[in-house]
From TrEMBL:
PANTHER family: ABC TRANSPORTER SUBSTRATE-BINDING PROTEIN YESO-RELATED, ARABINOSE-BINDING PROTEIN-RELATED. Keywords: Membrane, Transmembrane, Transmembrane helix. This is Extracellular solute-binding protein. Gene3D superfamilies: Periplasmic binding protein-like II (3.40.190.10). The keyword rRNA-binding does not apply. The chain crosses the membrane at residues 12-33.
Amino acid sequence: MYKRCLIKLMRIGITVIMVSLLISIVSIVGATAGEEKVYELKANIIGPGPIGVKKAENIELAAERLNQMLESMDSPVRVKVSVEFSALKWDPFADKFYMDFKAGKAPDIFTLRNMVELAKRGFIVSLDDHVKSFWDSNYYDFYPNLWESAKWNDKIWGIPHDISPTGVWYRKDVLRKLGYTDDEILKMLPLDGRTTLDKLAELAKEAVDAGLVEYGILHRPSKGSGFYAVLLAFGAEAYNIKTDNLVLNKPAMLKMYEWHAKMVKGGVIPPESPPWKTIHSTFVEGKTFCTLASHVGTPAEWKEKYGLTDEALENDLDFIPFPPAVEGVKPVSTERLRNYRKSYNIFRI
């Protein structure tokens, strides 16, 4: 079920590879036999979490495949990519990029979130011509909304390469202990998220009152896209795309705060969110019914650090988009978002 859910949610969210200096493959392929040349590129990749290193490995793999293609075409040209994988947090990683850029040591390929600011300030180049040239071979099967997230001012500024949409992870085994069958669980919490946040809270309270879990619902202890997903669940849009302005929806915000206060009073959510280690460990151990603090790729971290098994992932856990908290709102997920000014991108099912 997790795999089906993953496929459904792959259309939501994005991390964008930013390219500040692009070597045209057209010029490489067109080299003559006497022009022996190795194009050297530098890539700085960030990827918090154990699965993040794949972002760096994919760059290396791409270089290998490109060189194989060039060899098959009898081209004397090769590409050499030096990839540096960083475990820094996003802000320090961005600071390092700006310092490297100022010193003339900026990478050719890098991962950052604030695409619009980078484009406005001239740190990156448009990739429209590149994408058009290689559309049929590389990019034709990307989800359309991923390209929309990589656009600003009607131009493409990055290549979508990673998707980790936020959502709700919950424990089916806890619901089974409450007497629900798998069919009943699927009807109450369908994979498309078309239920309500109140229904999720109702089930969480049942689990707490029955003494099956220590925590009903846990949310992030720090800023992150999961918080914005909750805002959207209450209809609290925070950005007006037409005016390029941030928006404060006071009525929707009030409903959100009132809901959280009600959950704390009812013992569903703790007054203060515990640290990350507790959030992850208690969920894996079955001491938390559901977490609003994770995304579709978090099980990789749970497996590596907290002992989650493939069997438990497949049979005892499930994942849905954030269900709506008010009428007129659809199930929602977000991808690493603070606000649109930083070009963090929102996608809805």
